[in-house]
Specification:
alpha/beta; 9 helices; globular
Length: about 270
Amino acid sequence: MSRLFYVVFVSLALVLVPLLESKELISISAVNYPPFQIEKISSDGKKGFSIEIVEKAFKKADENIELKYVPMTRASWSLFDKGSTGLVGTIKWLDSSGKLDLVEAVDLHLIRFVLFYKKSNFPNGVSYSDLGELKEYKIGTVRGSSTVSTLEKKGLNLDYVSDIELNFRKLEAGRVDFVAAVDLAGWDIIKELFPKSTEQFEAVETPFFVANSSLMFKKEDNEVIQSFKKGLKEIVENGEYIDIVRKYYGNEIDVNSVLPDHIKQGIDKK
């Protein structure tokens, strides 16, 4: 009888102990925003620049996450009402929530908005010290984009569309002189639309607008925040963070150009 009891006890222990030790899933919301957050994993296995940083950092911190995609209009709702622990994106998405004082944002990387153009139109390249110098040119932009106000304040000749791809088709057809877009996103669109002639396009090296991609938490979830920060610090120090940067930008990228200050400082101390 004692032997049977022992066998039953050991069997139950093998089943129950892992369950007791397993950590609760941390719910993270994201908005489909390629190539930073990709709801449908691309054919080359990329999940998104921001997402891979988040996943790698939490894994390093020995935390398990559950990633859920939501529409842009429900980004704030997912964090404050649906009960997600974190939201991947930009703090601007929460401007209208009225709850920014309840949020702590951990910056992941910079999002750089640049001007794309056709080399044939500007054989000597493009440089400027102020956007206002480009008033004689037509610039394609997406209506409602976070950079529209920046462009409008300079009194630029803007051509508004609702679809970023249409902007690049207009650029290729010569109907606009420049397209304002995120550097990574712009190049992805060019490669998709014009795979045999990507070399005809170029982008101004210096961004005209820079935003932070962040993982946003409710301040009350301090334990999770500190755990994520610890994991992020570790992947910065061991080089895994830089590997992700190069995976999306290539080996020629000036890594410092996409690093938030706190990450740049961590790398400089190595």
